[in-house]
Write a structure and sequence with these properties.
This protein has 135 residues and is α/β, with parallel strands linked by helices. The chain has one domain (2-132): P-loop containing nucleotide triphosphate hydrolases (Rossmann fold, 3-Layer(aba) Sandwich). The protein is built from 5 helices and 5 strands. The protein has helices spanning 13-27, 61-75, 87-91, 99-112, 129-132, and strands at 2-7, 31-36, 50-53, 79-84, 115-121. It has a 5-stranded parallel beta sheet with strand order 1-5-4-2-3, with helices on both faces. The termini are close together.
Length: 135
């Protein structure tokens, strides 16, 4: 399962992500991972959530980031949910160029039974067609 929060900056996407993460970790039988490009949110997350500041790793672009996620998912089969906050900021690409990335995420989600929650900054009236089914 992939769920995307899509909208302009300041619309509360990160707040929704934090609330979902803190809620899910309390009822989850598996591990929860939260990926962001800053450490400032780590204090707002439950200590049970594995927080990853992507800037601590040399990951550039959607292909490398997908590989990183494959590594995270494969190293721990108990991962149930992965949150990715600010996807386009993390990979420095616009949403229109992410079709292959989302196809890869679908494979990871299906094969490993991992849920993904992703926030993307952009105009909610111009969501790419391949992302609309996740919103």
């Amino acid at each position: 399962m992939i769920k995307v929060f899509y909208g302009k900056k300041g619309m509360g996407k990160t707040k929704q992500m934090l609330e979902n993460a803190n809620s899910i970790v309390n009822t989850s039988n598996g591990n929860v991972v939260y990926i962001d490009d800053s450490s400032e949110l780590s204090v707002k997350l439950s200590h049970k959530i594995r927080f990853v500041n992507i800037l601590d790793y040399p990951v550039f672009g959607s292909e490398a980031f997908l590989g990183f996620i494959c590594g995270v998912a494969s190293q721990n089969y108990d991962i149930e949910t992965i949150f990715i906050d600010g996807l386009t900021y993390i990979i420095h690409q616009d949403a229109d160029s992410l079709r292959a990335f989302f196809e890869g995420l679908e494979k990871i989600a299906d094969k490993n039974n991992v849920r993904f929650f992703i926030s993307i900054n952009g105009d909610e009236n111009a969501i790419p067609e391949f992302i609309q089914k996740y919103v």
